[in-house]
Every structure is written in C-alpha cells, then in structure tokens.
Amino acid sequence: MESSSIIARLLLLTTLVTILAISRANEELMMQLCHNSDDPTLCLRCLSSEPTAPLANQVELARIILRCVNSHLITLTNNTSTMASKHRGSPKAAAALKQCGLGYASAKRGVGKVDAHLIAGDYDKAAYDVSMTVEAPPVSCRDSLVTLNINFPSSFRYHTEVYLALTQALLRIIDRF
C-alpha cells in the first residue's frame, strides 16, 4: 500500500514539474513573439490577460491577441456612436463618423474571418484579412477625423493606438508561422 502511495506521489510530482516546464517554455514563447512587436509591453499585457496563455501554442497566442483587438474594436465602435450623437449638427462630421461606424462593422466581420483562418491554419489569408479588413478601417477613420479637424476624446485616441499596435503585433506573429 505504501509503495502505491509513493508511486502516486512521484507521478503527481512528475506531472507538476512537466506542467511548470511547459508553462515556462510558453512564457518564453510569449516574450519572443511580443519582442518583435512595436510595443512589446502592450502585447505581453494582452497575452497576460488570458489565464490560458502560458499553456498556449503560437496559433492560440495569436487568437488571444485577436480577442484583445476585438475588445478595443467594440470600445471604438461605442465611442464612435457617442461621438456621432454629439456631432449631429455638422453634416461632414456626421458623415465621417457614419463611415467610421461602417468601417468598424467591416473590421468586426474581418476579426471573425481572421479567427476562422487561424483555426484552419490558413495563415496567408489570416494576414491578408488582418491588413485589409481589420487594420484599415480604424486608420481610415482616424485620418478622416483628423482631416476634418474633429475633436475626439483622448480615450478614442488611446483605443485606436492600442488597437493598431495589437493589430501590428498580430501581423508579426502570423508572419512567423
């Protein structure tokens, strides 16, 4: 009976050591992937927000970054709606903000496509969709608001910059597949 108890404890200890070794290796993978981004701290913060990240492979880490991108996209969409209600008196501003909203809706569909491509292992299509449908609308929106000299809140600027930085991190991760 004692020998089976010792074997069980050794098995448990071996399992724990293996899990810790895998976790540490994946943390190094996270640091390596984020090191290549424009903002490694932001990339690591995103990955660290997901409890399963230390056990994730490259594709799963890319999908975690994509979820962070999507979170900021939702915030940008809500901020755009709020800004649109404040600029009803200005037809140019209202039109620009409407286009931003349409662009964000397109980006939302793009996020879904990118996720499906990552799951399917079609990384070239995933990278293409990140560039064309996920990244482009916020850039276009920001540029048109700046051109029209529309005053937008600092939180909008912050979420746009974080969104774009995470999108770039995602592209760099996908490019390494």
What does this molecule look like?
The protein has 177 residues and is mainly α. Helix content is 84%, strand content 0%. Helix 1 (2-35) runs antiparallel to helix 2, helix 2 (40-48) packs across helix 6 and helix 4 runs antiparallel to helix 5 (123-147).
- What radius of gyration results from the CA coordinates? 21 Å
Number of helices: 6
Order of helices and strands: HHHHHH
> What proportion strand?
under 5%
Which whole number gives the mean pLDDT?
87
Largest sheet: none
Question: SSE layout and pairings?
Answer:
Blueprint: H1 2-35, H2 40-48, H3 58-86, H4 91-120, H5 123-147, H6 154-175
Helix pairs in contact: 1-2, 2-6, 3-4, 3-6, 4-5, 5-6
Short description:
The protein has 177 residues and is mainly α. The protein contains six helices and no strands.
Quick tags:
mainly alpha
